[in-house]
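Regression test case RT-17, inverse folding.

Input:
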């Protein structure tokens, strides 16, 4: 794996609760891999410093979780972290388009955020393609990440639509008796 994607959920912004900054802090000494921390929490600004200090390399947030997307971007940059913005399946591109020059990553959710093991929603692919077109047209260096139901059957479709970072949990941990190395290799070659 290139990144370790960490889903942080608060039970309010999304209907589940997961880990917080203390767990990330404990994991940080174990690996030098990039910690791609996806904050599905509201309010988000209150916790940016804690996750930055815990060892996040990329901090991704949802524009719906902040009163000011611009201020949240500045706050994350204040801690010298890369900035990501995530769009839920029904979130419109116009929520992030004017901020693209100031961020490092766009995360497209291909499931409703909150629970693992959901089925991939192919209707997000046009959004992925559109954002890729904007990034290319503006000649921006932004990673385009997709998360939700990514498996051996649909990963190529996501890449063809413009994604260069695939987040896969259930497939990586559950297929082929949990053989992580084999499953990552299969995703790379599919």
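Golden output:
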């Amino acid at each position: 794996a290139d990144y370790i994607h960490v889903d942080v959920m608060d039970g309010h912004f999304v209907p589940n609760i997961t880990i917080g900054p203390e767990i990330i802090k404990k994991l940080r000494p174990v690996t030098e891999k990039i910690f791609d921390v996806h904050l599905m929490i509201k309010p988000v600004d209150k916790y940016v410093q804690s996750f930055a200090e815990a060892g996040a390399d990329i901090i991704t947030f949802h524009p719906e979780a902040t009163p000011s997307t611009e201020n949240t971007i500045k706050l994350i940059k204040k801690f010298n972290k890369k900035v990501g913005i995530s769009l839920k399946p029904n979130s419109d591109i116009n929520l992030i388009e004017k901020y693209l020059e100031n961020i490092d990553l766009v995360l497209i959710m291909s499931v409703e955020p909150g629970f693992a093991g959901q089925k991939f929603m192919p209707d997000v692919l046009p959004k992925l393609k559109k954002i890729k077109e904007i990034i290319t047209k503006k000649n921006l260096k932004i990673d385009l990440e997709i998360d939700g139901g990514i498996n051996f059957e649909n990963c190529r479709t996501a890449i063809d639509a413009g994604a260069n970072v695939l987040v896969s949990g259930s497939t990586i941990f559950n297929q082929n008796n949990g053989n992580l190395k084999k499953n990552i290799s299969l995703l790379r070659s599919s």
